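Below is how a single chain appears once it has passed through the pipeline. First comes the sequence as given, then the structure the pipeline wrote out for it. We keep one example in the README because the format questions we get most often are answered faster by looking than by reading.
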Amino acid sequence: MARREADVLFDGTYEGFLCVVYAYYYEGIHPVSIGADTMLQPTIMLDEFYVVTAYEKARKVDAALTEKISPDAARRVRYAFFADAADRYAVLLHYIVLGFKMGHVVDSYLQQDVVLRVHKLAREVGGEAHRLTGFCRFAETKQGIYYCAVTPKHFVLPFLAEHFTDRLMNQSWIIHDTRRGKAVVYDGEAYIFVDATEAANLEYAANEGLVQDLWVMYFNTAAIEARKNKKLHKKILPLRYRWNMLEFASESAL
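Resulting structure:
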């Protein structure tokens, strides 16, 4: 199949990216560069090609990742997609093409820069998502909705949404990525992602102050002064997470 070189645009969703992979294999599109929506700067003398997200195509590619490479590879691709890395789309496409040629053994070829890069990005995103499941601090609002602000390095809201939908399935909540101006909103049945560029102006429930005071009291009482190790503490719990954690609200705790 003759390939058409183009600057490829898609809607920025994971399903949209899988459709970019579909376009590469089934529509003869060779992406010279890949960008989300209008973020791409077109290359001189090349066409622009917009990939429309079609969920059936995305499912087909997702299934192929699992079957032709491995379930672990499919998981790595998804995690790495949400990394805060400008080159992630091109790197992932390269990795997928290589994986479809080599099969599951591709992940043992860590001497290949692209394989090592995908492993590193997936590990970073997965690790941050896992840490934040324990570092999220929710506060009850007057409306009975629980609100939590986070400032992660990577875009981990999709993974937090999956985790807390399972853990807090009967409770309405919002997790707000203040760094990116995005939020995931759950109403007790389903969640959606929304733009939330402005700082949250919330009124908290009457007893929320008491709950927070009790939590801080517990945290301070449980700490053993002689065993404090701030250097190790900062390695396990980086400063960027602490700004949103009640127990580290005071400057001395940071």
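The chain has two domains: 4-127, 136-248.

See the next section for the split statistics.
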